[in-house]
Fold this protein.
Amino acid sequence: MTKISSFVLGAACGIVAYNLVKTPAFKKACASVVGKGLQLKDEAVAFAESLKEDAQDILAEAKHQNATNA
């Protein structure tokens, strides 16, 4: 493949990508994907917070048992 044909192919791909990005359907699909990603992040944060609270409860119980056994 020559340099000129590579340039032409790259330019054509760039034009197609530019036109694709401008379509309302593509924008809607991207917004949907980003929305699902944000929802997943929020769920992961809630799960991590739940694990943290459980670990703190276990630690508090262990400290209480050590205090009563001592």
